[in-house]
User: What shape does this take?
Amino acid sequence: MEAQVQGLLETEPLQGRDEDAVASADFSSMLSEEEKEELKAELVQLEDEITTLRQVLSAKERHLVEIKQKLGMNLMNELKQNFSKSWHDMQTTTAYKKTHETLSHAGQKATAAFSNVGTAISKKFGDMRRK
Assistant: This one.
């Protein structure tokens, strides 16, 4: 696919080869020694923070599992609870209520119609027996 160029800016997103070119470019010559040291320190700090966050997350996930075990919660119970909640949420929507009301009304009409047909057939059989 050919990128459209308007002035110096490309309007197309970077392609794989473009990302490789950017990744392999050496921008360090554009930075002063002080900026390089600041960036290296920031990099180390960010890596440490990420490691700490991963450890905290892992500990919290283990604690979560322990609490669920103590409460007797397992995957099947969670699925049941999620399904029940989703079913309840769906039943409280306006669309569900309107559909339920319409189908209920249609069912009542169909029941009345079948009852009338049944009555008419019974009457016809009664008339035929009397003749």
The chain has four helices and two strands. The beta strands are 5-6, 9-10. The CA atoms of residues 20 and 67 lie 46 Å apart.
